[in-house]
Design goal:
The structure is a single chain. The protein is built from 7 helices and 17 strands. The protein has 303 residues and is α+β, with helices and mostly antiparallel strands. The protein folds into 3 domains: 7-103, PH-domain like (Roll), CATH 2.30.29.30; 108-215, Pleckstrin-homology domain (PH domain)/Phosphotyrosine-binding domain (PTB) (PH-domain like); 220-302, Arc Repressor Mutant, subunit A. The longest helix is centred in the last third of the chain and has 24 residues, at 192-215.
């Protein structure tokens, strides 16, 4: 490849399910314009402008005998549709999937209404243009409409038909938790291909968080503590808000940290580790899993 590679790793893959019955070993090289699957005797080019779907999940059907997890890339080239399947386990492939979504979506112009709803109330906001970017743990809108959709706070999304600029068109309606309340953002993209990819990105992140939540257990006290962390500022005493003594709060925060729902930002900054303590009450932050737990709780309350 003549252009700079932003991903380059060795794994097992099926370059094209129409021409390869079994996986082969080779290199996956990605630039800003294409993905190239290279084997000892072949080279398959996947143009990013032709990618219409990306899935990262357990291997489907007959492929399960070859892979546990896969990244499936549907793409069009020379007027024909193709499917490539890449072995999907490990941090390297996770980063590759993120890079693919960013390459496909970053900088895309969208028509956005934010918020279209606040709680159950329809707002009088109108659609305006923005540029869409994927950033760590969030979808950002930058432009005339500015918004940040933290993926872990998304509680529902669906495709709808709405009047945008005088004509009916499909859009993605995303309900998420804003400043302690549920809001809905509506996004319309000119490209149905990119609309599908954005929906796939949200479904992928949403499914993973729901699975992680399903694998975890939280007591009522722990849920209450997570909501208090979300709702209060750094200068507010969590012990006072929760009506517990400091020793009990320390135990709650320590358990939540061990389960992956909170992190001590002060400890990270100073390179220290260990259980939650009284001194860190103002620095404790929700992880993406903690935000997802709060979102699910608030959604249950609102319903």
């Amino acid at each position: 490849m003549s252009e700079s590679a932003i991903a380059d790793f060795v794994t097992t893959f099926i370059p094209d399910t129409a021409t390869h019955a079994e996986p082969v070993r080779g290199r996956v090289v990605m630039s800003k314009r294409q993905i190239v699957l290279v084997t000892s005797d072949d080279r398959v080019v996947v143009p990013l402008e032709g990618v219409f779907d990306v899935k990262h999940a357990s291997a489907p059907g007959d492929l399960a005998k070859f892979f546990e997890d896969t990244v499936t890339i549907g793409y069009e080239r020379d007027g024909q549709k193709h499917v490539a399947v890449v072995e999907g386990g490990g941090d390297t492939v996770d980063r590759f999937v993120t890079l693919v979504f960013k390459a496909l979506l970053n900088g895309t112009t969208v028509y956005a209404k934010h918020p279209a709803r606040r709680g159950g109330r329809i707002t009088d906001e109108s659609f305006d243009t923005a540029d869409l970017f994927l950033v760590p743990d969030a979808v950002e809108l930058r432009g005339a409409t500015s918004a940040r959709i933290v993926v872990s706070t998304v509680t529902h999304f669906e495709r709808l038909e709405r009047d945008v600029g005088g004509s009916s068109r499909p859009l993605l309606s995303v309900r998420h938790v804003g400043d302690a309340s549920a809001v809905t953002t509506e996004l319309a993209l000119d490209s149905s291909r990119r609309m599908n990819i954005l929906g796939r990105f949200l479904r992928l992140q949403y499914a993973q968080l729901k699975q992680d939540l399903g694998d975890a257990t939280l007591s009522d006290d722990e849920v209450e503590a997570l909501v208090a962390i979300y709702s209060t500022g750094p200068d507010v005493s969590l012990a006072g808000v929760l009506g517990v003594d400091v020793s009990h709060l320390t135990m709650l925060l320590s358990d939540l940290e061990e389960k992956g729902f909170v992190v001590d930002e002060n400890a990270i900054e100073h390179g220290s580790t260990g259980p939650a303590s009284q001194a860190r009450q103002g620095t404790v932050e929700l992880t993406s899993l903690g935000q997802a737990a709060v979102s699910e709780h608030l959604e249950d309350v609102n319903n």
